[in-house]
């Protein structure tokens, strides 16, 4: 009898719980029988709305307004943890040497090259300029003291943007799950994660990138909520904000494409549902489609291009980035030797020229008196590519018979056979069947002969890329290849630095004739007193040309990134398990050490929650598919898991899985955008699990289990943060494996280096 009473009481309690729950969520009579999207819980309404939406996009069911006190606490803790000790250490840490220096370049308007789009560096520069930094600190290497230079503004700006990440995550999860508890779990994980704190406190692109990613995600979720009120002011506001955030993410790093893909997939799903709503006319569907094209494609594209327009306008002085770009690009930079100069427009016989390779930092065709050493092909004069302007880059253009004495010189055309004579040494550009010094499958290129005399191996055929026989060779603008007549190979810059020399790069003759930047050259300097000169300002590229070139150079630079000396290159499978961090500052016990490593408790909870999420979704889906009768709140929990949780899982996959197929060098910090999605998914998963404690225990024991689980989780995260916070805020004294260390016993994995 006692057992029956307990069971009866448990059923009554669950029934009353369901009734209480229905005060917040729609009843079955109010709700569509079709699956309900997590972003927009909707009421039954079969008639079209006056603004063009049908019942499928009518008013969203009422949801508790965000707990303002909780949000204030989350905001306060987030800003406090990120801004604490923001000026420590007072020296350059890790990649501050790059992005701080680039901020200085903007302030000084000096052109530079970076593999990432410019928005992040522009914002860093703006923050520094607005807080009194004058752009004079050199940022030479990590460990350099800032001394009197004002660096806190740039660090503070990044920390402020990083402080918004837990806040955005709180709001996103609250909207997707309709649970303040899930949102609070997510915010707690991010606020007290040592990795998120560390990466937000320095002059880096990562906090700026993650700010825009999370802003785009929040705007998308908020926009989805407005589906019952299309084309209203709030609907347009969130659409425009989402588009602006997408432009911001892509404008900081190309990995912003991942969140663009996420928003694109969500938008495609929304449009597909709108198309299936037969109460809407095709004109209404077209309006929805065009609005999204404007807000999520045209607006981001316009903003992204505008960022580059500002970038090019600001950086108008010659600088360290000149050599990465074409000669025509360089001609627009004040202080460059090509700026506002005059020279003949078309290449002619008898001209003195310099020839520049089109690969990134390919250098100028160069020679000097030094010979190749013994054992390296023929012991003839070296021909290399040199990255700097030099008199030894000068070559004379001759006909094969050396007849260039006419009053009006003949112009060089596509298909012509020429001989290039090195002006300083008078030796001809020459190739033969000997192996190249480093690229053994290529042929050696040398300087041969004297005073214009040589042999048939000195003859090269000029080929204008994309041209036809008879086309003229334009200075600066024509892409040219030089085909060796005797062997059929093509003049090539391998990009490999020769072991002995002065920053000399190997030049070879490649038997592989595919057109690549390494085998393409352009004529840069051109001197011929018998020809009229034109101002190079007439040959300057237009905005679209320099925009396209800058993207080609950035993409090539990204794919060619190599690990830095003494720096660990990690693998994607390392990241979710927190296998290895990054040294931001210091190595030995006498130095101020900062180590980028996620709070291991937080990261391992996230990892476990991924598996738990898949199990819960599988069990729920099987139960529904088998027709098992579930309470209304169980259905709602299932919808939150598959809808909101599914969106977060997709976000995690899109920001993580692509790194497995990337050929470039990878680092631990690349995982942090994915970690944000993983933490949000953890909040949804653990909250749903604890809310279903009444499947195991009757009331009030299930409530006790739920509250107890929440408190244990909170205590565990807080205590782990207390143990590992020196990783973020600085360590001094003995290392973790030495006696007396403040981190003694906390090196849980041998791969951790603190």
Automatic annotation (TrEMBL):
It comes from the Eukaryota. GO terms for cellular component: endoplasmic reticulum membrane. One of its GO terms (molecular function) is dolichyl-phosphate-mannose-protein mannosyltransferase activity. Pathway: Protein modification; protein glycosylation. Residues 1-17 have a biased composition (Basic and acidic residues). It is an enzyme of class 2 (transferase). Residues 1-61 are annotated as: Disordered. Residues 344-400, 409-465, 470-526 form the MIR domain. The chain crosses the membrane at residues 152-173, 204-223, 235-268, 289-314, 601-619, 640-659, 671-690, 711-729. It is a multi-pass membrane protein. The keyword Magnesium does not apply. Its main location: endoplasmic reticulum. It holds the Pfam family PMT. Residues 28-37, 47-56 have a biased composition (Polar residues). SMART domains: MIR. It is found in: Endoplasmic reticulum membrane. Belongs to the glycosyltransferase 39 family. This is Protein O-mannosyl-transferase 2. It comes from Gambusia affinis (Western mosquitofish).
């Amino acid at each position: 009898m006692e057992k029956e009473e307990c069971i009866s009481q448990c059923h009554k309690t669950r029934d009353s719980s369901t009734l209480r729950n229905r005060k917040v969520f729609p009843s079955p009579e109010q709700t569509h029988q079709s699956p309900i999207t997590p972003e927009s819980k909707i009421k039954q309404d079969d008639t079209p709305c006056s603004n063009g939406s049908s019942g499928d996009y009518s008013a969203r069911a009422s949801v508790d307004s965000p707990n303002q006190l909780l949000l204030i606490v989350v905001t306060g803790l987030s800003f406090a943890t990120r801004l604490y000790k923001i000026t420590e250490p007072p020296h350059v840490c890790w990649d501050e040497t790059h992005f701080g220096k680039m901020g200085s370049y903007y302030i000084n308007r000096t052109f530079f090259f970076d593999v990432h789009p410019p928005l992040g560096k522009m914002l860093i520069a703006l923050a520094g300029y607005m807080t009194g930094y004058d752009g004079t600190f050199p940022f030479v290497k990590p460990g350099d003291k800032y001394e009197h230079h004002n660096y806190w503004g740039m660090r503070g700006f990044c920390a402020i943007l990083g402080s918004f990440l837990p806040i955005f995550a709180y709001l996103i999860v609250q909207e997707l799950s309709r649970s303040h508890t899930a949102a609070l779990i997510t915010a707690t994980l991010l606020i007290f994660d040592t990795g998120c704190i560390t990466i937000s406190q320095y002059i880096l692109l990562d906090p700026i990138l993650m700010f825009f990613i999370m802003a785009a995600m929040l705007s998308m979720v908020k926009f989805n909520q407005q589906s019952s009120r299309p084309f209203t002011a709030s609907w347009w506001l969130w659409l425009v904000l989402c588009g602006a955030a997408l432009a911001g993410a892509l404008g900081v790093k190309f990995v912003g494409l991942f969140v663009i893909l996420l928003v694109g997939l969500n938008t495609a799903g929304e449009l597909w549902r709108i198309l299936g709503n037969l109460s809407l006319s095709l004109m209404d569907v077209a309006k929805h489609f065009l609005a999204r094209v404007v807000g999520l494609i045209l607006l981001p594209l316009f903003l992204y291009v505008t960022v580059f327009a500002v970038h090019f306008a600001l950086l108008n002085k010659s600088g360290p980035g000149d050599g990465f770009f074409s000669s025509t690009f360089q001609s627009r930079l004040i202080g460059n030797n090509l700026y506002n100069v005059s020279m003949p427009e078309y290449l002619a016989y008898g001209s003195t020229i310099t020839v520049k390779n089109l690969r990134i930092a390919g250098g100028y065709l160069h020679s000097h008196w030094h010979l190749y050493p013994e054992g390296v092909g023929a012991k003839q004069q070296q021909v290399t590519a040199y990255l700097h302007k030099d008199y030894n880059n000068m070559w004379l253009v001759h006909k094969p018979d050396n007849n260039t004495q006419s009053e009006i010189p003949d112009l060089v055309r596509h298909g012509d056979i020429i001989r290039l004579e090195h002006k300083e040494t008078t030796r001809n550009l020459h190739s033969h069947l000997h192996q190249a010094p480093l690229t053994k499958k290529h042929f050696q290129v040398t300087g041969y002969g004297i005073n214009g005399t040589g042999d048939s191996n000195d003859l090269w055929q000029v080929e204008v890329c994309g041209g036809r026989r008879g086309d003229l060779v334009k200075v600066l603008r024509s892409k040219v290849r030089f085909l060796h007549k005797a062997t059929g190979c093509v003049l090539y810059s391998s990009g490999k630095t020769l072991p002995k020399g002065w920053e000399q790069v190997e030049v070879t003759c490649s038997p592989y004739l595919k057109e690549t930047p390494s085998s393409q050259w352009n004529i840069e300097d051109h001197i011929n007193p018998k020809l009229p000169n034109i101002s190079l300002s007439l040959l300057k590229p237009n905005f679209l040309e320099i925009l396209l070139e800058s993207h080609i150079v950035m993409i090539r630079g990204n794919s060619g990134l190599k690990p830095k000396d003494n720096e660990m290159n990690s693998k994607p499978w390392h990241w979710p398990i927190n296998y290895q961090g990054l040294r931001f500052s210091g190595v030995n016990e006498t130095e101020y050490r900062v180590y980028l490593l996620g709070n291991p408790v937080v990261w391992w909870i996230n990892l476990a929650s991924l598996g738990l999420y898949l199990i819960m979704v599988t069990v729920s889906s099987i139960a529904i598919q088998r027709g098992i009768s579930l309470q209304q709140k169980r259905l709602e929990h299932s919808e939150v898991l598959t809808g909101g949780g599914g969106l977060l899982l997709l976000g995690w996959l899109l920001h993580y899985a692509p790194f497995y197929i990337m050929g470039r060098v990878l680092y631990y910090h690349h995982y942090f955008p994915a970690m944000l999605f993983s933490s949000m998914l953890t909040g949804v998963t653990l909250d749903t699990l604890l809310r279903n404690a009444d499947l195991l225990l009757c009331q009030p024991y299930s409530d006790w289990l739920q509250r107890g689980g929440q408190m244990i989780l909170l205590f565990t995260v807080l205590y782990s943060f207390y143990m590992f916070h020196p990783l973020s805020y600085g360590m001094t004294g003995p290392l973790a494996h030495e006696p007396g260390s403040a981190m003694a016993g906390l090196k849980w994995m041998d791969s951790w280096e603190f």
